[in-house]
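User: Predict the full complex structure for these chains.
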Amino acid sequence: MSKTTAPVCPSHLSNVVCALNSPTSHAACCYVNHTVSFFFFVCASRRQDEEGHVRGHHRTVAAFGCPLQRSPPGRPVLLGCRSPEKETFTCRWEPGDDGGLPTAHRLYYQRERLEGTHECPDYRSAGSNSCFFDKSHTSIWVDYYLTVVASNSLGNATSDIFKVDVMEIVKPDAPQHVTLTAEDRTDSPSLHVSWEHPPNVDAGSGWVTPEYRVRAGRRRQAGDAADWKEYKAGAQTHFTLYGVHPGAAFAVQVRCRLDHGSWSSWSDASYAEIPERIGRDGPFWTSLWGLSGFLFLAAVCVAVTKRKSVMQFLLPPVPGPKIRGLDFQLVKSARPEDFAGALLIRRDFPPAAARKDGAIEPLIVSDVDAGVQPRSGAVSAGFGWDNRQKNNGGERNATREDGDGRSSTRGGDADFETRAALESDYSRVKDVTADNIFLLDSADVPRAERLPEDRGEAANGKTLSFRKESVPSERRKKLPPARPPRAARVIDGGYVDAIPTSPLGETA
Amino acid sequence: CNRKSGYRCMSHVYMLDRDEVGRLPSQPILDDLSRCRVLSLANLFDRVIQHSARMHGISNDLHSEFEQYFVPSRNHVGRISRNCHTSNLLTPNGKENAQKIAVNLPLLPRGKDPLWHFHQITAHQHDLANFSSDKALEMSDMVHELRKGVEKVAEKMQTLGMISNSVGTLADFLPSESGGWRLMKDHELLYCFRRDSDKIKNYLKILKCRIVPEHGC
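Assistant: Here is the predicted structure of the two-chain assembly.
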C-alpha cells in the first residue's frame, strides 16, 4: 500500500521558496529569486513494511505555470558616506527586497543653507548603489540629509534619513608609490622608506594635514609577513628603519589620515631584502691584510737577525760599578782571600784631587816602631779593612766586615802583630786644627776584647773627634821616629781614629 | 610692553605655556615684561593652530558627551531648523572659497569676530556650565585666548607689511544681534561650536601655508 506524502521541494536548489497552492493536491509552486517559478507536482509513494522501514520512493515531477509572486520593494539602507580628500564624497546604500519586479533606487538630499530637495548628481562614477558628489556639489561644514527611495511598479520604499557633514567622513586613500631602499652603512644597515601622499589630496595648501604611519614586518616564506611593528611618521613622506638584520626580507606598508579623521587602508606591501654584509670580505680588504702580514714577517726577520743590537737598544747594559782604586775585574775573578789585595791597589790613594779641596781627607796614621814592613794602606774613618785580612784568611773577613771589632780567637799574637804592623803604617797626627768635628757615637764603636795593658791610655772610646779640615804637613806618609809602641791609639779592632786628647800632641 | 619699546614686544607669548592638561598658568606671561621675547610669524602661527586644534578637541569631547547623556533624535529634529548663527559667516562653498575667507581672517575687526561671539555665549550659558563645568569653562577661556592669538597674528602681519590696516571687511557677515544665541539649545550650541572650531582651525592652517609655507605645509 503506497502512501503519498506532502510534496517537498528539491533540496539541491537554493533560494527556493515553496508555497503550497492547494491543501488537497500534492503540488507546490516554488520560486527562485522571485522570478523563476516552476511547479512541482510530486507524487511520492513510500512503501513501508510492517516494521516501518522505508522500502522505496516513487516520485513524479511535472512542470506547470505558476502564478507570479510580486510585491513592493523592501526598504533600502544607507550604509555610509566617505570623502577621500575633503572635496568630494560618495555615499552607498544597500537595496532591500525588490519584490520580484524591476526596482529603481534614487537618492534625494536636502542641505543646510540650500533650498529644496535635490537628486544625486552622479549614480555611476562610484559603482552600483552609490551616489558621487563632485566638487561643485560638495560643501563642507553644512549638513546633508540623504534618503534613498526604492520603487517598482507596485510601490515605493524610503530609507531612513541619513545626516552627514563632510568634515566627519574624511578617509583618504592609501599613500602611493611606496619605495624601499636598503642602505648599507658601516655597521648597521638600514631601510629607507619613502612614499607620496594619496592621489587627489591637496597637501601643500593647508586644506588638509596628512599624518602617516608606517609598519614593517619580517617576510615569511609564504610571502605574507608577520610581527608587524608600527611607527609614527608624522607629516613627512619618508622614514628610516634601523636595526634591520642583513639577509632578512621585509614587507613595508604605509597608511595615512587627514586632520584626525579616519585612517586609510594600508598600502600594498612593498618588499625589500637586506643584502649580506660584504664590506669586510672584499678584495681591497684581502690585499690589505696580506700586505700587513708580509710587513710584519719582514719586521720579525730583521729583529731576529739583528737581535743583539735590538737587545742593546731595548735593554741597555747596566753600567758596572766604578770605584776609584778598585779593579772590578779583579774583584770579580779573585778568590776571596785575594779580596783585600784587589781592594788595596793603588799607592796613591787617596787621590790627589781629594786633597786639594780640603774635603774629607783620609787620615793616615802609622807608627815606625813596629818594624813591620810598610804596607800600603787605604784608610778612612770607619773603614774596617786592614792588612789583617790578608794574613788571617777569609773567616776573618767576615768579622772585620761588619765591624764589630771582635778579634778572632785564633792567634792572639798574630793579632798583636798585625796591630803593630798597622801601627807602623800610620803617621801620627800632629795637630788637628780643623773646625769640623766628626763624632762617632759610642754605640757604634765596639770594644775589642783583648787589648794589651799598655794600652791603658786608650781613649775611653766614648767620643772621637776627627777634624775634617786639612791637617798640616804631618799628613804624609813617613816613618816617624822610633818611640814606644803605644802612640797609635787603635781602638776596637782596627778602626783608626783620631783622638783629640793630648797624647797625640805630645809626640809632635 | 608699551609702544615705546617698539613692536618687538607685540608678538610675545600670550597663551602657550600651558601644562599638559591645558590649564592656563596662574600668572599670565603677558604681564611679565622680563620675559618678553620675539617670536617669528611661523612660530606664532604654529602656536595659534595648536591652540585651535585643542579647542576643537575639547568641543568635540563636549559634544559627544552631551550626546551620550541627552540623545536627541538626530535624524529628524532640527533638520532645517538648525541654524548656527555663525553659519552666515565663515561658511565657504568649497575649498577655494574657504581659502578666500581664510586670508581675510586677520582683518576681522575686534569685537565683531565670531570668536568674540563665542566667548560671550559660552560665558553666559549656565546650563552648559552645569553640564560639564570644567570643560565649559576651559572652552570659554580658550575662545578668549584664541581670539587674542589671532589678533597677535594680525598685528604681526601688519608690522611685516603683509596686510593693510583695513577694517570691517566682513562686518556685514555678522549677525546684527547676538540674542538669538540664547534661544539655542545646549545641544545645538555645542554642535555649532564644534563645527566652527574646526573651521577656525582650518582657516588658520590655510593662512599659515599661504604666508609662511616653509614650515610643514
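The first strand of chain A starts at residue 3 and ends at 4.
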